[in-house]
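worker-03 picked up job from queue 'complexes'. Input manifest follows; two sequence lines, order preserved.
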Amino acid sequence: MKKILVVDDSSTMRRMVKASLQKLAEVKFEEASTGLEAIERLVLSPVDLMVLDLNMPDMHGLDVLKFMREHQIYRNIPVIVLTTRNDDSSCVAALAAGASRYMTKPFETQVLAAQANILLTYK
Amino acid sequence: MSTDESNSTFFAEFLDDYFAESDAHMTNARRNLLALESYVDSDVVELGLVEELLRSFHTLKGLSGMVGVREAEALAHEMESYLRTLREEKARLSSEGMDALMAGAQMLQQAIAARKEQSPPPNIEATIARLQAILPPSEEPPLQTAHMEETPAEVEKPVGSTSPENGRKLPQPITPSPPPPAQAQEPNPVRGSTADPSVPPSIVLNNVEKEKLHQARAQSKALWHFQFAPNTELANQGINVNTIRTHLQELGEIIHASPRMVSGGGIVFDFILSQVEAETQTDFDPTAKEIISQSGLTYSPFEEGLGDGGTGGRGDGLTAPLLPCTPAPLLLCTPAPPLPPAPGGATCHQDKNESSEQCSCIVFEDAIGRN
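worker-03 finished. Artifact:
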């Protein structure tokens, strides 16, 4: 069973992401509504994939990413950044911070599921 | 059925959730807009209010886009753009700006309500034009091309810079952030004791946080440093970083929050909190102290004065609160250097579907140095 951590300050958006990924076989979900909670979840229970929003209370998504990539035990966890930012500079900044994929909202459910699947399969 | 139609049908199932969450955000936004009115034509605005408004409209923009309420998405985007100029001090809150925000919020509410009632959407052109008119000339990003949001701490100006707005010199950095210790050490799972006060944490404040700190000091608020070390035992009791955050928000305003790795793979969250008038507040009341104790928190005065010359004093006339625990002075540090570029270069492919406004950017595994 693979574990996916969905990080977004909107509960509706978290449900949308989970529903999109529900069709993947053998996955279960953890949720976090802030960047700090995402870090806490990682520490208390390892995950196989993270879907990460950027603009969140207390701790920006890019800072979550950088924190993960700076610490060995979280460095190899794949992260899909899912954000409303659709400009090139934001995409490049997220990739430079260690994002594995970059997708924008509104997103296509099938594309998100395919991205998640490939990351889980070849992790 | 096309992919777009399939997607719309899929997310239509979430409309009730969307309406419920939109109601909550609009309630917060209306309250915060009313509070913001008192800052019209002022030199400064309450950054916390602006940030909360930004977050509400940002979330509304994202959710509205997902369920296809385009009018709401566009309005939220324009209000977000103006609020961002306020936060970045590129514009002053004018009466025209305040009126436009109020009108925008009202129209946003109507757009959401129209969808809920399955009635025709309102005409938003005049409101959009009004919101765009209050933006500085260089701050008119079209919806599909520039969604710049808040900037993370890493790319902010370093601590020690002078704010051109107030000409005030911020504390100079004392030492760069040390790397986390490499040696293994058993984390102490005992509630509330894993924060090691002998190791001063390195905290990097971004520009918004620095401004909040300035405002708190100007208003003679007491400043505290809280540390929370989460563990499974606490989590099983329902105590986690979110509940801690809620408790702290009841005690004051959280200026900064960040995680810090400690030896043995554990983690500590650092919070800087500002709280009421320093002249009258020297410690927390017994009820608050009990909550703090039960939550596994440790706290001490925020010794930000160390950054003013290393004397250990605040250097700003603040009354030093009582020491309920061993003080753990903070060092204001310069941001850590950015990570080196990904080996081989990150390859970004942007596929834009005009009809869905979808933009995907993909990087291949090898390009980001994954093992």
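worker-03 released lock.
Confidence is low (pLDDT under 50) at residues 144-151, 153-200, 305-371 of chain B.
Chain B has three domains: 3-133, 153-332, 339-371.
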